[in-house]
């Protein structure tokens, strides 16, 4: 793996780790409010964090395998950057009062598209 690929992968792993941390802190912030807090807001914060932890790790593993297999730094950056933006959109959208909303839907659909691209690329590399 070349330095550019490693740097690109590190950037998007780091950004997604920070996003997961921010979402986790948001859950704790709502939990500290206890009985005086809004239970719906807590539930939405938990869902935003949980949804992120369901999708991001496996996609990042896939990006890592792609990098090891020789995917370009540009490819890693396009997929990693798109994933990060999609997850920010989703996290924001899922915590809004109006559900469903465009941010949550776009974030979810784009996450699935990134996952599909990574999976397809890995399958094609694995098959032949």
Order of helices and strands: HHHH
Estimate the helix proportion, in percent: over 70%
Briefly note the CATH topology name.
Four Helix Bundle (Hemerythrin (Met), subunit A)
Rounded mean pLDDT is 95
Total strand count, please?
Answer: 0
Please state the second-level CATH architecture.
Up-down Bundle
Class derived from helix and strand content:
mainly alpha
Largest sheet: none
Please tell me the total number of domains: 1
Terminus-to-terminus distance = 20 Å
Radius of gyration: 16 Å
Assign the CATH superfamily: Membrane associated eicosanoid/glutathione metabolism-like domain
Describe the protein.
- The chain is mainly α.
- Helix content is 84%, strand content 0%.
- The protein has four helices and no strands.
- The longest helix has 30 residues, at 3-32.
- The two termini are 20 Å apart.
Would you summarize the structure shown here?
By secondary structure, the chain is mainly α. 84% of the residues lie in helices and 0% in strands.
What labels would you give this structure?
128 residues, mainly alpha, Four Helix Bundle (Hemerythrin (Met), subunit A), 4 helices, 0% strand, elongated
Explain the layout of strands and helices.
Elements: H1 3-32, H2 39-68, H3 73-94, H4 102-127
Helix pairs in contact: 1-2, 1-3, 2-3, 2-4, 3-4
């Amino acid at each position: 793996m070349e330095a550019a690929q490693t740097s690109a992968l590190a950037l998007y792993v780091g950004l997604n780790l920070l996003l997961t941390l921010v979402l986790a802190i948001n859950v704790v912030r709502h939990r500290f409010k206890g009985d005086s807090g809004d239970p719906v807001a807590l539930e939405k914060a938990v869902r935003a964090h949980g949804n992120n932890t369901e999708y991001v790790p496996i996609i990042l593993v896939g990006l890592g395998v792609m990098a090891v297999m020789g995917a370009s730094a540009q490819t890693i950056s396009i997929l990693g950057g798109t994933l990060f933006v999609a997850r920010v959109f989703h996290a924001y959208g899922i915590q809004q009062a109006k559900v469903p909303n465009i941010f949550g839907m776009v974030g979810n659909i784009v996450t699935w598209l990134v996952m599909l691209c990574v999976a397809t690329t890995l399958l094609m590399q694995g098959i032949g």
